[in-house]
Amino acid sequence: MSAPDGDGSFRSGFACFVGRPNAGKSTLTNALVGTKVAITSSRPQTTRTVVRGIVHRPDGQLVLVDTPGLHRPRTLLGERLNDLVLSTWSEVDVVAVCFPADERIGPGDRFIVNELTKVRRTIKVAVATKTDLVTPERLAEHLLAIAELGRATDTEWAEIVPVSATGGEQVDLLADLLLALLPEGPALYPDGELTDTPEEAIVADLVREAALEGVRDELPHSIAVVVEEMRLRPDRPEDKPLLDVHANVFVERESQKGIIIGHKGSRLREIGSAARGQIEAMLGTPVYLDLRVKVAKDWQRDPRQLRRLGF
Ligand SMILES: Nc1nc2c(ncn2[C@@H]2O[C@H](COP(=O)(O)OP(=O)(O)OP(=O)(O)O)[C@@H](O)[C@H]2O)c(=O)[nH]1
């Protein structure tokens, strides 16, 4: 399969993978992006649209975003979350539904595809995942079942693509096909960038949580955290990535700085190690966390400071 169009145009846009639990979405994202940056959030319900990874190509850029899991709503919160999913789906260019080849199409898949019909304009792609686990006969049957599900729900699949993320089979082809479905446009993120501000905001939040642990009464709202830089350390072997995170912890007064830093820096070390654990759990990547404590006088009352601190 050649590159999209092959006419020198550059395409860019957003796609998201959906599918029932265990369908292979994260593994496929990692295989496409080539580095393990996928968020395996331990707090999925608090995560809004998050960039999971960016596929950089000479002829295009594909930004993979994550949506909260779609559930059959049992509660109002569930309904709100599903609204959020629908609004994300309507904002991306392509939604790719993953159907694991080692399992038959079931009610969970039908529910997702039915919901997907509510976003008419978004392009839909079907991905048959985990093809390495099945025989060619079973795969053929699976592909027919996916096509049939499309007909039954009045869903037009732009493509039906079998892949094996763990075997690396057809992963590049899927990237080509997805890129070809994106509109023409400039790169949305600088080359080499794998993450986005929403992720940094979550990281900042985790640091803030850790810093407030145990001193909430003393410093309730006087802490703000800003992630200055977050990037994968270059020159690391592919199977041993390390994410460098530099963050500033802002307090309002010199005296509060002492509370955060603690005796000979003991508290800051505790904060760092607690936050690092959380960030690693969320990103699935080992993290080097560098924390600096700074005084930003009366930041809560100063609009200029507030802007700088991301409020
Ligand atoms: N053999 C094989 N196993 C796969 C493949 N892709 C994913 N898996 C396995 O399937 C399981 C689920 O994969 P995930 O990528 O975590 O699935 P997910 O859809 O992100 O799961 P949730 O986060 O629960 O929604 C893991 O044990 C993967 O190793 C594949 O191409 N081949």
Automatic annotation (TrEMBL):
Protein name: GTPase Era
Annotated stretches, region: G5: 163-165
Reported function: An essential GTPase that binds both GDP and GTP, with rapid nucleotide exchange. Plays a role in 16S rRNA processing and 30S ribosomal subunit biogenesis and possibly also in cell cycle regulation and energy metabolism.
Protein family membership: Belongs to the TRAFAC class TrmE-Era-EngA-EngB-Septin-like GTPase superfamily. Era GTPase family.
Domain Era-type G: 11-184
GO CC terms: cytosol; plasma membrane
UniProt KW Transmembrane keyword: no
Species this protein is from: Nocardioides zeae
Record-level Gene Ontology MF annotations: GTP binding; GTPase activity; ribosomal small subunit binding; small ribosomal subunit rRNA binding
